[in-house]
Amino acid sequence: MSNNIKTTDSNMSIFGFQVVEIQGHQVLAPSGYIDLHTAHQFKEAVMCILDGDEQHLIIDMNDVSYVDSSGLGIFVSALKRVIPIGGTVNLVGCNPRVSHQFYTTHLSSFIALHENMDDAIEAISTPISQ
User: Fold this and answer.
1) Whether the Cβ atoms of residue 77 and residue 84 lie closer than 8 Å to each other
2) Rounded to the nearest 5°, which phi and psi values hold at 19?
3) pTM of this prediction?
4) How far apart are CA 106 and CA 113, in angstroms?
5) What residues contact residue 23 under an 8 Å CB cut-off, 6+ apart?
6) What is the pLDDT of residues 26-63, one digit of tens each?
């Protein structure tokens, strides 16, 4: 799936994604809208990464302009997959409109929002002290 791009243009919903490797981690980089019309493709991409060896999911959100409740549900599904194995979900570069969705739904309490990729990689590489 690496460097794979898919696009949907249905009812004004535009979506595409790439999977790139950054410092040994598979990073999902979607673009466009994550909504009812594109949620299936997004979920397939997320689950494909989680079906591999990734304990920590990193999603580069720099090119995502909108996330609706269907999209938020996929993030919850991802959390349910990674939490039991000590993993995390990390979002990088959310625009204010998208990050607002995570804060108002309190998903930001469970999903780490990072300003840049270096911060996300550092966060998953640093052991949590107890």
Assistant:
1) no
2) -120, 120
3) 0.88
4) 12
5) 121
6) 999 999 999 999 999 999 999 999 999 899 999 999 99
